[in-house]
Specification:
Rossmann fold; three-stranded mixed β-sheet; 17 helices; 15% strand; hydrolase; AB_hydrolase_fold; Carboxylic ester hydrolase
């Protein structure tokens, strides 16, 4: 029987387990537990431990309690040491193997999500000679609330601390700290763009991959107003001492209560919600996040970092389908006008969209305004910097989904179609499509080239992932229907 893998880090030894040809290490802490005096502090380095540390179970998660039914099964794990990483490496990798590294950041709208998901297990990457590190970070108000007397963007600081851990420790698992690709989906993809523009993250990765990026860039004014609402609902002063005086569960409840009226007001001003987003997420603080990521990228931030970026074709259409009975009665041009799209752009958008019917067009509009326009804007502002675009166009055969929805592409990138919950939203997904997408991610992490032409302002090309899979499915002007919104 093969011995359990052992890695020698600078803080102490960690003992994982072997799963086939993969060495798995779960729940390795990269910072001290953010509790007590450290609850609203920047992440604090760990003290060394003696002997071996067991790394055979997922570590505690920042997500607490039952998250309910989500597209990606992301369990909550109780405990205090929530700042931890999971590492997946080839079982035979030597410490001096210098293998490429993929660091994955989970999504969840900056308020939920967990690295303790089998969807993120890196066995297929390990099979192909890539080490995967899945990181945790503080979410919700504890991670991103703007608190007087506390450092801002604690969740982003956690992500940076995890990347510093990779820089300092990944050789113990066979990785090369000079060949790190940071990647993430949804809020994780937005985090990737934020990290690309943060001076604190400079030099910690050499390539990036933003999957369906939802940018978080809350103004200090909006973040401060939201913190005041949370404090009022929790019955405390809106400063560090006040928030620290009540347990986390009470702050989480106050956070949810404070978000509710924001969403109610947004129903009468959906255009504002689409433009500004929710008031909880990375804050433009002039320090960790000096500027809005798109503004910083337009000024050549991370222009030397190759980037793969893209989205699914219909991130949110499955949500609008729930209101099909009502939406079918709404004239689409009128609905788009209410949503803030002026006449000239509205006509151009309706002329270009491939979607038909109120449900599809309005769901597509939310998709395009929130996610796909970010993809196109990023490509444009990066100019000549190496940027590869893609579209995930494969529509789920599950009747309740029926489109290329949010999260559907994640198990394809990880080549993990047999993970629990995949069949729920993907039915029986095509393995050849997963092989192509995963192969592109491997090629990018290893060779800095996913296998199709880069974006340029003339051809505006993107790789289209669909079934039946084709290795040559490159489309010119692939995001043309989004252009009127940018």
């Amino acid at each position: 029987m093969d011995a359990a893998p052992l890695a020698h880090t600078s803080k102490g030894d960690v003992r994982g387990f072997r799963r086939g040809a993969t060495a798995v290490f779960l729940g390795i802490p990269f910072a001290r537990p953010p509790i007590g005096a450290l609850r609203f502090a920047a992440p604090v380095p760990l003290e060394p431990w003696g002997g071996e540390r067991d790394a055979t179970a997922y570590g505690p998660t920042a997500q607490r309690g039952d998250a309910g039914i989500t597209l990606i099964p992301e369990p909550s794990v109780p405990g205090d040491a929530t700042l931890n990483v999971n590492v997946f490496a080839p079982a035979d990798a030597a410490p001096d193997a210098d293998l490429p590294v993929l660091v994955w950041i989970h999504g969840g709208g900056f308020t939920s999500g967990s690295p303790a998901s089998r969807w993120y297990d890196g066995d297929a990457f390990a099979r192909d000679g890539i080490i995967t590190v899945v990181i945790s970070y503080r979410i919700g108000f504890d991670g991103f609330g703007l608190i007087d007397g506390a450092p801002a963007n604690r969740g982003l600081r956690d992500q940076i601390a995890a990347l510093e851990w990779v820089r300092d420790e990944i050789r113990a698992f066979g990785g090369d700290p000079a060949r790190v690709t940071v990647a993430g989906q949804s809020a994780g993809g937005g985090s990737v763009l934020a990290l690309m523009t943060s001076p604190m993250a400079s030099g910690l990765f050499s390539a990036a991959m933003a999957v369906s990026p939802a940018i978080g860039a809350v103004s200090r004014q909006a973040a401060g107003a939201f913190a005041a609402r949370v404090a009022a609902r929790a019955g405390v002063r809106a400063d560090r001492a006040g928030f620290a005086s009540v347990p986390e569960e009470r702050i989480v409840a106050a956070q949810r209560s404070a978000l509710a009226p924001h969403l109610v007001r947004a129903r009468s001003s959906l255009a504002t919600l689409l433009d500004d987003g929710l008031p909880l997420g990375p804050v433009v603080d002039g320090d960790v996040l000096p500027r809005h990521p798109l503004d910083a990228l337009s000024d050549s931030a991370s222009s030397d970092v190759p980037l793969v970026i893209g989205s699914t074709d219909d991130e949110f259409t499955a949500l609008t389908a729930r209101f099909a009975g009502v939406l079918r009665l709404v004239p689409v041009p009128l609905a788009l006008a209410v949503l803030g799209l002026r006449r000239t752009r509205r006509r151009a958008y309706l002329d270009r969209t491939r979607r038909r019917g109120a449900v599809a067009v309005l769901g597509g509009f939310f998709t395009d305004r929130v996610i796909r326009s970010t993809v196109l804007k990023t490509a444009r502002v990066r100019g000549a910097a190496q940027t590869w675009l893609y579209r995930f166009a494969w529509a789920s055969p599950v009747p309740s989904i029926g489109v290329a929805c949010h999260c559907l592409d994640v198990p394809f990138w990880f080549d993990h179609l047999d993970a629990d919950g995949v069949a729920t939203i993907a039915g029986t997904p095509p393995a050849d499509l997963a092989a192509q997408m995963h192969g592109a991610a491997v090629s990018f992490a290893r060779d800095r080239d996913p296998g199709w032409p880069t974006w340029d302002a003339t051809a505006r090309r993107a790789r289209v992932f669909d079934a039946p899979a084709s290795a040559t499915a490159v489309e010119t002007d692939a995001y043309a229907e989004v252009a009127p919104l940018v």
